[in-house]
Every structure is written in C-alpha cells, then in structure tokens.
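Job type: complex structure
Entries:
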Amino acid sequence: MRVAWIGLGVMGYPMAGHLVTRGGLDLTVYNRTASKTEKWVSSFKGRSATTPAEAAAGADFVFACVGADDDLRQVTVGPDGAFRAMKPGAVFIDHTTASATVARELQEAAAARGLGFVDAPVSGGQAGAENGVLTVMCGGTPEDYAKAQPLIAHFARMCKLLGPPGSGQLAKMVNQIAIAGLVQGLAEAVNFGMRAGLDMEAVVEVISKGAAGSWQMENRHKTMIHGKFDFGFAADWMRKDLGICLDESRRNGAPLPVTALVDQFYAEVQKLGGGRWDTSSLIARFQNLDKAK
Ligand code: NAP
C-alpha cells in the first residue's frame, strides 16, 4: 500500500509519523517549506516530493493537514494539486479544519475523477497528535470511510463517521462552539477568584471534581493563573475556526451570540500581540483592562 502526506505542520508532522511507527506504512511526504520535509524524512525514512501531485502519484491514500479552505484547494485541485495525480479508487483524507462547503466541493471534484474523499478534522491539539490520541470527526460515504478508518486509527483514540461529506467539518464546528464559551467562562472565573484573593490552584483542585469540571479547567487553569500562553492551539487558528462557525450559522439560522462575542474577544487578544498565544489567553484581556485603569 502506498500512502502520501501533504502538510507537515504542528499536527501533520507527528500524525504522519504514527503511520510509519505504528502502522509500518511506506510514506511519501510533501511540505511547502522543504526543510520540514527533509527533517521528517531523516526521522521516519520515507520519500520526499516537491509538489502535492508528485507525492500523490500512484498512492492508494493521500492525507492532508494544511491551514484553511484556500490552502486545501491549492493542494488538491490547484495546478500541482494531488487530485490530478491520484489513481482511480484512491482516497483523499483531509484533516484540515475547513468549511463544510469546501469539503462538499472537493468530495464532488474527487468523485468526478473516480476518487474518494473523507473530511476528517481533528480535536486534541499538539499533544493529542504527538501521543496519537486524537479525536477524528468524519464526513463522507460509508465506503470511503471504511477504507480510511483503519489508517486513521494509527493516531486516533476516537474516530467516527458522522454523516455525508461535510459532516466532519460541521461536527468540528460544534466542538469549537462548545469550547469558545466555556473558555471565556473559565477565564472569568479564574480572574474573579484571583481578584478575590483566593489560591486559585487550590480552588480548581476542589471544583474540578464537581459540576464545573472540564478538560479546559484541568488543562488550562494553570496557564490562565500564570499568564503563560504557549501551550497549544493559537488564537489566530481559533478566529479562523470561529469565522467558519459564524459563516455556517448564517446559512443554517442557528443563533451564536456567545460565539460571536468570544470571537471579538480573541480579536482583542490578537491586538495585544497574542495571535500565537493559546486559546486560554482570553484572560489576558482582563489583565490589560486593569493596566488601562
Ligand atoms: P501549522 O503548524 O501552521 O501547519 C500548517 C501546515 O500546512 C504546514 O505544513 C504548512 O506548510 C501547510 N500549508 C499551509 N498553507 C499551505 C498551502 N497553501 N500550500 C501548501 N501547504 C500549506 O498548523 P497546524 O497546527 O498543524 O494546523 C493544521 C490544521 O489543523 C489547521 O487547519 C488547524 O486549524 C487544525 N488543527 C490544529 C490544531 C492545533 O492544536 N495546532 C488542533 C486541531 C486542528 P509550511 O510548513 O510551508 O508553512
């Protein structure tokens, strides 16, 4: 079986690695910045390619994990894109967080060429990718998913087909909507407790075992207390994702008032210079408001 991987970023680099170390697969990899391709090949012994098309030639499966909709279009249907080189019957598996619209568009373009396409955005962050324990939300036909799932399993703890093409991206939107308000609530709670003079690490040790407990509370209360925001998913990426959610809500009519507000709070974080800070940096807005007083 021949496998290609496009996009060796924070997420793609370790995910592709698991296909070799856990899956024993033979990979050809492409990354826009060639230095990352060289580093990956020297660690995992695959082959390197200079374009997505070259990587995808003759592959049975082609994976991608790039930035946003237009990046994904470039590496699939662009002039050097993978689709033109893939053989009929091959499946493209996309782990980028993108819109449901682009997922449906690419699934149709793939089908017209006799290719499969699965939209498969992930949750679990850099640590989840490095430890191979991601949650993967899939959209596509049952036939394409059945082919893709055993490979995805090499870096996933949970993987499920949630409906037709685009459903994986829609599920990822649900995930991001659920996170946005929760992180803002946590930022308000931690800031309130600190102002009240409480030992917030002690408070969280207690309340995280009760009804207020959450993954964000367990994993992000310390970054909020100490104002150190270098632990993962960046505010810039979160704004991209919330923009996708807000666009989709205009189509399906679901009100997202809190999500829209939190999106604006992340815009303030970006203005503070925090575009690359992780999402728990919402608390920095309060510290900045204090400074302005
Ligand atoms: P990243 O470190 O910035 O990596 C992005 C990758 O995409 C790089 O390999 C980049 O190539 C490549 N790329 C971007 N635009 C491209 C283009 N037009 N043509 C070719 N290659 C292109 O980002 P990441 O953190 O791995 O995230 C990747 C995706 O996963 C995003 O959609 C993100 O929202 C999603 N995601 C991320 C996390 C997280 O915690 N980081 C969690 C869940 C989901 P270069 O090396 O040349 O820049």
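Summary: The mean pLDDT is 96. The pocket of NAP is lined by residues 7-12, 31-33, 36, 65-67, 71, 74-75, 96-97, 122-123, 125-126, 232-233, 237 (CB under 6 Å).
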